[in-house]
Amino acid sequence: MGTVATILKWIVRVENGGLLNIAFEKVSTTITSETEFDVSKDLMGKTIDFAKRALMLKEIPLPILKEIPESLGGGKAGVDDAHSHPNREPVLFFITIGVFLAVVILQFASCCCLGCGIKKSKKNRKTKNYGSFGRKGEEEILENLITEESPETHSKRRIHRIVYLIVLALGVTFLAASVILTIIYFSSTALVVNYLETKPEKPSEEIPLTLPDGLRITREHMAKFFNRGITMGKKQTSDSIDALLRKINGEMSSQINMTVDNILIHLEVGQVLQKGKETLANVDKFKVYTSKIASNIKTVKIEITDLRDSMKITKQEFDDAYRTSPNCQAPGQCDQLKKETNKIICPIEPDAINTDSTDQLITHLNTMQMDLQNQMNDIEKAIADIHGSTENIVDSVQKQINLDSTMKPIDQFWDDANKMSKDIMKNLDDTIGTVEEELPKYLKFIRIGFYILGGVFIFMLIIAALIAVHLIFRALTGHIFSSSKFNDAPKIKKDICGQGPICCCSILFIPILLMLAIITAVLLFSMTLVSGEGCIYVVRESAISKADFVMNGYIAHLWKSMMEGDGLGDAGEFLNLKSPRNILYALNNVCARSTVEHGVGLLRSVGYDNLVDVEKLVESNQVADGINQGRESLIDQIKQLDVPSQLPRADELDNMQKQLNEAFDKVDIKELLKISHPDQLNIMEFKNLHSNLKTALASDPTFIKPIDSLEGVIQQMEKLKKSLTDTHEAMKKSETHVEDMKKVVAETITVLKITISKANDEQELLGKVAGEYDVMTNYIIEFIKNYGDKLFMRLTQVLLPCQDAHIAYAAVTKVSCGDSGGISLLLGLVYVLALNVLFIALVYITLFNLAYAQARLIHLVNC
């Protein structure tokens, strides 16, 4: 095998595309910019023309090499280099033919020239030396010859003896080499037969040693590749799709929640709730404040009433004292005092203070607070209902968009791939079955043919060996190595004519040698052509790149029709099913790095960055229709929520505001401020009155009690003034609070009215819903593009782990084109066959020359 590899290395000077130039032809196409190829239509004619041109040493047409880029060793530069350095298959053919022709010519010349020369010399010798003595005289003369010989004759004998020994050594050497080559021939035929033979036991090694082993390993690993790859691929794809759908659904749920929130923002319900809560808090504070003021007013009113009653009693006591006091009985006496005590009158009329208006205000505030709280509760409930219905909205939208159904063809790809793999395996099984069934039928004929040819070699070697033994025996018994003549020497006739049978055998074997030479040369040329111009393009890395370029173009040419057929059904709709590239390099190199733990995906190895065309998926009619249906579903869901019905009516708000304003208006703050002004109580005047009365009437015991009562009134006035001051200040502040309260309520009602107005404007609301939905779907589409593209890109890198595909490819290439493959075995057998024929021819040439040399020696011995 090493010799075969060395010869092939010598033969292949340039990777000129070899048989690719025969098997393929360029296809004129404008569909793509890629060069496309198809199988040659006249394959037999191109093969014959290729061989004819090669044998005629003409430039071989290299159309495929010309199309291969110069970066890969093709193009015009590659063609020029190939024409400048043609491969040497024809050289080997002509060397073989030339060597065998030379041997045959030499054999023929030896038989004709040397054989005829001996006979002529015998005739001349008889005529010259013995004349008319005849045969009897010849024998008598030979028996009576003197043992003496001349120096010249002795020198000739010595030279011929040396030549004889050399030829004898060559003959023995060639005969031994032929025997060894015959043994090698049978070993080679045994290797070839074993290579073709189907063994019943299953080999344990993975490296194929025979054709059946290679086919079996190919079948097993192809089955493993398809079964494992499709099973794992289907699960990985399904898991990836499920993961993507979960991610999409999560994002869609989040986006729909955001959409609902944006719709609520559009309705300004958030501001309504905020304003409502602020208003409720302010109402609650204002109600507490108002309640406190109302309580103060009631307290002041009670105190004023008490003061009025006290003043009445005090005045009555003074009046009674005037009537009973002896100091005031005279006319005009105490009139001035009476006039002063008549001023003991309450300056504030308690009935003028209306506490009902404040109570009504508090009642209205409580009612408004309750109503507003209920409305806020209703709005919060509506928001909660809207958020609660988001799940139903999400489910409805997802159901309408139906990405699960849209992505179903992607998962279905594996069902279609499984169907295709079964068809491939069926064809492979049929092919392997045919080979395994038919090969044994022809194997015995192949074996018989090899044995017959080997038998011919053995037969020729036996004859050659018998001739050699005969000649050696004659040499040993003919005293041809003696320096003297013998009177008991062999008969000249027998010794000289002993070369006749050898001559006849040599002449008879010449046609056989010519036939074997032609067969051997043709086989050598054919096998080296297949190996040097074919096999290297599936095993040698630099040549694989050229074969891959052609295969890329060939597959690209077939791909469109394959995709338009039923090969992948609906699965190809959203798949990046471009034609694969560099399949041979992937199977030979990239997949060799694949392991069970770290699988290299075949799809990634042959140029697929992403199996799924995510952009095409999201822009498909199915997704567009689903989005439109999802929009309608969302609008229907929003309609069913009936948001306006969950909000208060505008007239209710107007009525509430009106009642509250009326309640505010009923509380006459200015009048209350006027009535409750503390300056109305002139305490100093009453103190002066008390002081004057006490001074004037100090000696009259009748006025002790009224004066004390007046002092008590003064104390009440002081207390009341303090209450009036506090109440008055609070009421002054309440005037500002009332305006603020009116403003807050007005703002809240305004915001509520805006929300109600937007909710009642269905066209605007649904337009907003549609707009928000479009924003959401645009986001989802971009999310699917980004996340889905990355997800399916990672998936594509591991799909169809190709370790088994590499083993199957390696098995096929090794069993056919490997160093111990069938082509190498056959080529080695042909080499051995050629050497056998050559050395057998040399054996017969040597034997004939040995016989001639021996005859000359016998002649010289007996001269």
From TrEMBL:
Organism lineage: Eukaryota, Metazoa, Spiralia, Lophotrochozoa, Platyhelminthes
Protein topology in the membrane: Multi-pass membrane protein
Protein name: Uncharacterized protein
Sequence intervals crossing the membrane: 91-118, 162-186, 448-473, 501-525, 823-847
Species assigned in the record: Hymenolepis diminuta
The UniProt record lists the keyword Transmembrane helix: yes
Protein family: Belongs to the prominin family.
Subcellular localization(s) per the UniProt record: Membrane
The keyword Coiled coil belongs to this UniProt entry's keyword annotation: yes
Main localization (coarse): membrane
InterPro entries the UniProt entry points to: Prominin (IPR008795)
Protein keywords: Coiled coil, Glycoprotein, Membrane, Transmembrane, Transmembrane helix
Residue ranges of coiled coil: 707-734
